[in-house]
Amino acid sequence: MTNVAPFSYRDLQAVIGYAAAHLPADISIVGVSTDSRTLTDGNVFIALRGERFDGHDHVDRVLREGNASCAVVSEDYLHHAAADLRPRLIGVPDTLRALGSFAWWHRRRFGIPVIAIAGAAGKTSTKELTAAVVSQAFRVLKTEANYNNQVGTPLTLLQLAAEHQAAVIEIGTNEPGEIELLSAMVQPTHGLITNIGKEHLEKLIDLDGVEREETALFDYLNDHDGLAFVNADDERLRTYERKVGRTITFGLDHDADIRIGVTFDASLLPVVHIIKDTFTFRARLATPGIAAARNAACAIAIGWSLQMSADEVRVGLESYDPPASHGYARMSVERMGGLTILNDTYNANPESMRVALDTLGRYPGTRRLAVLGDMRELGDASEDEHMAILGEAASHADAVIVTGDEFRRAVERLDAPHVLWCATHSGCVEQIRSLAGTEAIILVKGSRGMTMEKVIALLHE
User: Fold this and answer.
1) How far does CA 184 lie from the centroid of its chain?
2) Residues 98 and 16: beta-carbon distance below 8 Å
3) How far apart are CA 400 and CA 403, in angstroms?
4) How far, CA to CA in Å, does 198 sit from each of 203, 211, 378?
5) Using one digit for the tens of pLDDT, what is the confidence trace for 71-94?
6) CA–centroid distance for 186 within its chain
């Protein structure tokens, strides 16, 4: 992700402080980069450190080749840097935080609606559908893919330009405090939490911890007179209608400011409808399942709050065509002879597993198989959560095939003869071919690390 965000000497004092005081007073930065491969003239290069890389390895080259105006480095690197490079180096305690500071400062230049989307599951799909709707009336910047962390979010914000009239920004979390940090960086005017579910329990511990973490977005909105979109169908979130100053409620199953109805066609594509004075329409979605309808409720509520017309919102919903899957995907329907594959292999946690299994159960067909891989990052709750999912799967599928160590332990503890555990992806395929017959609906899902898309690839062979 490249950008041309400008920063003057005065801007640098506001972003970095005294550490940038030695730079030339006439310095003019155009763009912030963390990737030495895409660096362009005038960029400031920020050297980030990760588990498998260190941007500091490239600082000497990018400065000597003349691409970068200056570089932001760690204080320990600065102390050992070559003397001739030090005038162009800015030493900071944490280069990742410095990247966020650049984005925070740049975001302050734009007085436009900025919509932040958080939640345990469905963030990316909701962000994409919301951006499709909002773009019918505004020129929109959106988070690309799922770049929702402390690197992707600031790089997205730095792409804001005069052409943009609104932004839809996805923010995610892996540990306590991340949503609070990203909310402060994004400075949203509007915010939506899709749901509260069991995610990243290794660090968030339990549902109370997830709720505290995700609702930091609502805390920010409440403190800054922002507008919070409250999911009335979520037992934990619906209480925030009374806790946040400005809210719009939405949902399918409970009374709400924006309550939509939903029916399904023969292919389980949702038809959503709403009757609210002149804001009345029906829209057919291109993504199957109940999750798509819930995502639509989010997008409709946001469109309504921005005073978009019913036609604009309808066109946005119907025009959104999820990208064709190549490998892993989010609830993509693939045909393979008489088999219908529900490819939901992008990722998994207990909440998204339940939604996917609900979609499998609703999908028209005579035989249904659930092929599931482990859910990662559940900490001490992992065994119980995998056992619970086995119970859910049995109620929605005629046969359940699982793989991964966590599901193996759950199967052994549950003593479930109706569940087949396989050690490998190829083992899963053998069981599918044995059980599916000539026609079946097959859900394939698991955490990203389980690479369950390999099951589908093997089925194609």
Assistant:
1) 18
2) yes
3) 10
4) 11, 10, 8
5) 999 999 999 999 999 999 999 999
6) 15
Amino acid letter at 339? L
Confirm if 40 and 31 have CB atoms less than 8 A apart.
yes
Domains detected in the chain? 6-95 (3.40.1390.10), 110-319 (3.40.1190.10), 332-460 (3.90.190.20)
Q: What are phi and psi of 296, to 5 degrees?
A: -65, -35
98's tokens: 């410095």
DSSP letter string, 154-222: HHHHTT--TT-SEEEEE---SSTTHHHHHHHHH--SEEEE-------HHHH-SHHHHHHHHTHHHHHHH
- β-strand partners of 284: 271
Read off the DSSP letter of residue 331: S
pLDDT in tens, 374-422: 999 888 889 999 999 999 999 999 999 999 999 999 998 887 777 999 9
Find, among 247, 211, 249, the residue nearest to 228 by Cα.
247
Q: Count the residues in the chain.
A: 461
Provide the pLDDT confidence category of residue 335 given band limits of 50, 70 and 90: confident
For residue 33, give both structure tokens.
């980069």
> What's at 242, amino acid-wise?
R
Q: How far is CA 70 from CA 140, 150, 327, 431, in A?
A: 31, 22, 40, 58
